[in-house]
Design brief:
It contains ten helices and 16 strands. Helix content is 43%, strand content 20%. The N terminus is likely disordered. The protein is rod-shaped. The longest helix is centred in the C-terminal third of the chain and has 63 residues. The strands form four sheets. Strands 1, 2, 3, 5, 6, 7, 11 and 12 form an eight-stranded mixed beta sheet that branches. It has a four-stranded antiparallel beta sheet with strand order 4-8-16-13. It is an alpha+beta fold. A hairpin with a 5-residue loop joins strand 9 and strand 10.
């Protein structure tokens, strides 16, 4: 009960609250004014901290809250990032816990943070972004920044930025690429010194006069960035980088698969310079290219394969199909790739994966047109050969008929010795040779016919073996039961080859192309996807080759 009464006594009344707020504001303003009375914003802090009372470099602790990553441009090789940059460091000149020289004592200043007004200047690390192309502060509806001073001298500086940052891209596996983009920032310092003599530095001469009209000279000396002896950048231990949950939604063609922080310190002849780096791993969304390019081009290659199944004599069907397919593929590649894709890509000196795919599809379709030209030429040549063979056979047949008529007349002459006297001795010898040759051919035909009849008799004998010296004819039906599976396949191959050999050259080429064309396209797909998907997996895993 007593503690409750004591709490009620400490709690301010409603009529006293405005006056207390005014008092706190006055105390805050007076404290800041007292702290900044002899403060020089051009001089860096001494590096003293509540944990270390020795002088040294200023340790700047950095953290980023990335709100969005958008407008990734492959053509300009840049991206747009919006984030809040938070920097913290100690300035021993701004401690006010043990400050006793002010109007109010330190006991009255029991607040932990003081907010610094916009017109009050403090020393701020001159952080710059090494790969920045353009950028701006956010000023609506007021400047999006704040500076706070903690009682132990800790300065908290937070500002919202939008930057256009360069991102060198490797488009070798485009559109299955994984890009690494960086946000690098370090310190850049420009120091101005007023001296009265010429110094060995880059300077600008500006004459002015003092109260006594004494002419003096001012030199502006531009020095390098702060080295690690002056400023050290470090990442915050807890949540150094925070990615907003809606940051991925601002990228229509990329996914942020990984974000990490590291350092990028550099050592030169003038010293070591601190640098911090944010690495963004961007994986391209592949679904657009799969639906708009890869599937339609594969279908066009399939249509080109259909032309092999059309008879080669149907010129009106095969030629328009091949030409239309080729023109469609070329038009698709120009419209989709050149207009929609290559217009947003830089003119690189190497072939991208999308170029290889489109080129291979055009080659396959063009091969179908060339194959038909070869087939048509060979088919016409075969037809001409058959026509010449038929004409030759007709001439031979007419010669045989004339010879038979001549032999009939000669036979009639041989039967009558009186008509044989009309022939010359040479013609008589010719007639005798032809007669002996014809009788010999008739005798061979009769013997061959008797042999075939004898073999058929033995073959039709159920289970009986032919006599010694005579071999029976084995048929395909009788031998299949005695063969193994490998032998059956071999017999099928022989049968297929025999069927193929019975066709003309044009038909043979078509039959072979029906098999080789899809097999070659499937093998190309296996090689293409295995190479580029493996490269994509390596890059997603963080294995980046130096280029």
């Amino acid at each position: 009960m007593g503690s409750r009464q004591q709490t009620d006594q400490i709690r301010p009344k409603d009529d006293e609250l405005p006056s207390m707020e005014r008092t706190v504001r006055i105390v805050l303003q007076m404290t800041v004014c007292d702290l900044l009375q002899d403060y020089d914003s051009a001089v860096r802090p001494s590096g003293k901290t509540p944990m270390n009372d020795q002088k040294g470099p200023v340790v700047v602790t950095v953290s980023l809250n990335i709100r969005s990553i958008s407008a990734v441009s492959e053509k300009n090789m840049e991206f747009v990032a919006q984030f809040q940059l938070r920097q913290e460091w100690y300035d021993d000149r701004l401690r006010y816990m043990d400050y006793n020289n002010g109007i109010l004592s330190a006991a009255s200043r029991n607040f932990e943070f003081i907010t610094v007004a916009r017109d009050q200047r403090l020393w701020i690390p001159d952080t710059f972004f090494q790969n920045e192309k353009n950028g701006h502060y956010h000023m609506l509806d007021q400047e999006n920044k704040f500076i706070k001073i903690r009682s132990d001298g800790l300065i908290v500086y937070d500002r919202r930025l939008t930057l256009h940052l360069s991102c060198p891209m490797i488009l070798l596996t485009y559109p299955m690429d994984v890009q690494r983009c960086f946000i690098d920032f370090a310190s850049c310092h420009v120091m101005i010194r007023a001296v009265e003599e010429i110094v060995s530095s880059i300077h600008i001469f500006t004459p002015f006069c003092d109260e006594n009209n004494t002419r003096n000279e001012v030199y502006i000396s531009v020095s390098d960035a702060y080295t690690t002896n002056d400023i050290k950048y470090e990442w915050r231990n807890i949540d150094p980088i925070v990615l907003d949950s809606k940051a991925n939604g601002a990228l229509p063609n990329f996914d942020i698969t990984k974000i990490s922080n590291s350092t990028c310190h550099s050592i030169t002849a003038t010293g070591e310079y601190a640098c911090l780096r944010v690495e963004l791993r961007l994986t391209r969304v592949f679904s657009f290219f799969l639906l708009q390019l890869y599937i339609p081009s594969s279908m066009l290659v399939g249509v080109a394969w259909v032309s092999y199944w059309i008879d080669w004599k149907s010129t009106a069907a095969r030629v328009p199909l091949a030409i239309v397919t080729l023109l469609t593929m070329i038009t698709t590649s120009h419209v989709v790739i050149i207009a929609a894709i290559n217009s947003n890509l830089p003119p690189v000196s190497y072939a991208k994966s999308i170029d290889i795919w489109v080129g291979a599809c055009v080659v396959f379709i063009f091969f179908s047109l060339i194959e038909y030209a070869v087939v048509n030429y060979l088919g016409i040549m075969d037809e001409h050969r058959e026509m010449r063979k038929a004409a030759c056979n007709r001439s031979r047949l007419s010669n045989v008929i004339d010879s038979d008529i001549y032999m009939q007349r000669a036979g009639q002459a041989m039967t009558s010795p009186a008509s044989l006297a009309n022939f010359s001795p040479v013609e008589k010898k010719r007639l005798l040779r032809r007669k002996r040759k014809k009788s010999f051919e008739l005798r061979e035909e009769e013997e061959g016919g008797m042999g075939m009849q004898l073999m058929n008799v033995f073959a039709n004998n159920n289970g009986s073996s032919p006599p010694l010296g005579v071999q029976s004819e084995w048929t395909f039906e009788n031998t299949t039961d005695l063969m193994y599976v490998g032998q059956r396949k071999r017999v099928e191959l022989v049968r297929w080859c025999s069927v193929l050999s019975s066709r003309g050259r044009a038909e043979r080429i078509d039959i072979i192309a029906r098999i080789i064309f899809p097999v070659a396209f499937i093998m190309f797909n296996i090689a293409y996807w295995s190479v580029y998907l493996d490269e994509k997996a390596k890059r997603e895993a963080g294995i980046f080759e130096d280029s």
